[in-house]
Amino acid sequence: MTNKQAWLDQYPETIANKVEIPNKTVTHILKETTEKYPTNNALSFYGRKITYQELSFAVQAFTSALQQNQVQKGDRVAIMLPNCPQYVISYYGVLSAGGIVTQVNPMSVERELEYILNDSETETIVTLDAFYPRVKSVQSRTKLKNIIIVSFQPSGHNFSPDRIFEQFLKEGNGQVLPIDFEPEHDVAVLQYTGGTTGRSKGALLTHRNILANVIQCYEFFKHEFELGKERCLTVIPLFHVFGMSSCMNLSIFTGSESIMLPRFDLEEVLNTIKNEQPTTFPGVPTMYVAITNHPRAEEYGLGSIKTCNSGSAPMPVELLREFEGKTGAKILEGYGLSEASPTTHCNPPFADRKPGSVGIGVPSTEYKIVDLATGTEELKPGELGEVIIKGPQIMKGYWNMPEETANTLRDGWLFTGDIARVDEDGYLYIVDRKKDMIIASGFNIYPRDIEEVLYEHPSVQEAVVIGVPDPYRGEDVKAYIVLKAGKTATEEEIIQYCRQNLAAYKVPRSIEFRDQLPKTGVGKILRRALRDEALKK
């Protein structure tokens, strides 16, 4: 096991080793915060402010309307929205009614949407008017009965017999029927994974899982928060488990104001920072890349931001240094998975921060490195293996996938599929996904090793590395690169640079320059899409 006790002994007043998780539902977060800070702003959306009291009234109305429409405990209700107040109202309303939130990426194409709706057996969906044609086109092939449409210009649309969100709120009688909850067992969210390892799987996150992760994160960052005073820039999507937890739920737990943007548009983000002065900014590396490379970033008053939690993808060390140098903010890189609600690790704000590491376990989280072959032998500090994790935030299992559940959850441990190592201090270093490892001429090659070097090149803005088939070596290393604006580089220059900084067997055999790289809705570079594309050539 990691040497976690060493830093616990060093910082006994700063972080608890374990936290008590009350036997409450996720909805208690909103109830208790509303009692403490009823007139504080909960949400900000393009200048519109919604207080905690107003948010709670809207949630109650939505809950009542769901119950009047026969939504029962355990029913799945899909939310297919960008970040907006209606997302938060729907999320907490569904949970208050005893339903299960089915998270749907708004960029899902019809085939993906149909799969998720059928797999989850969803009968009700809340969606944006722009996505309505997609939903309507698959409705006849699903069990979907109720479509609730969010429109930012409701008077200009008529979706009869389907309802506009504001109309739906009036369908309840204002009363909420009591639900008999068992937080440890009752599922709150069906969080579909990205499908990078096959068809998309629905992680079953219970009320206790989600509440535990919020409390774990608060305990970890408690000396960074001033309760009832923080403003969180919420631009990472709430349908993604990172945004759901680190932006929406943690903000509500701490009485913070969530400054919501529906997408990452660089100029809009910078102007929002300038006008709204957020104090925290959870994000992903591609967002920090964009801000770092903006020629006038410093003119937008970035100094209000105290803390940035980076997650969802590895943060190149050079990028971290550049961003902090320009903004003065502190980036704390962390790690998590949909299956862990999601946070398991983060660089501590109260102890040594180690660039390149994802830090130490949040309270009540155990972790160790085991051998890749059997997963039964615990490895020593510095040795590479699979990281496995145990804690109250670990999912109940996968929806209707008993074999996948048994393979991923073993003896209470979550097998992550990530190759990692720990150092003597218990800091975790994620090397790569097991499936992303490249094997060339018998050598194990980890893409992140190469990507770190590429990000240090002065002309490189973004880089991703994959393995492509080779009849002799098995696989070859190929790099895809986006150059910084106004910068140039040739394939030979990049390869020569890699030769100077990498072992010969790691040097890319080919470089492909792109104007942009494929990304997920949360901004993570889609390595799989490039791999699939390469296999078709």
Would you kindly provide a brief summary of this structure?
This protein is of the alpha/beta class and 537 residues long. An 8-stranded mixed beta sheet has the order 7-6-5-3-4-8-9-18, sandwiched between helices. Strands 16, 17, 19, 20 and 21 form a 5-stranded antiparallel beta sheet that branches.
Indicate the topology:
Layout: H1 4-10, H2 27-36, E1 41-45, E2 48-51, H3 52-68, E3 76-80, H4 85-96, E4 100-103, H5 110-120, E5 124-128, H6 132-139, E6 146-150, E7 163-164, H7 165-169, E8 187-192, E9 202-206, H8 207-221, E10 231-234, H9 241-253, E11 257-260, H10 266-276, H11 285-292, E12 307-310, H12 317-327, E13 330-336, E14 343-346, E15 360-361, E16 366-370, E17 385-390, E18 397-398, H13 402-408, E19 409-410, E20 413-422, E21 428-433, E22 438-440, E23 443-445, H14 447-455, E24 460-470, E25 474-483, H15 491-501, E26 510-513, H16 527-536
Parallel strand pairs: 1-11, 3-4, 3-5, 4-8, 5-6, 6-7, 10-11, 12-13, 25-26
Antiparallel strand pairs: 1-2, 8-9, 9-18, 13-14, 14-15, 16-17, 17-20, 19-20, 20-21, 22-23, 24-25
Helix pairs in contact: 3-4, 5-6, 8-9, 11-12
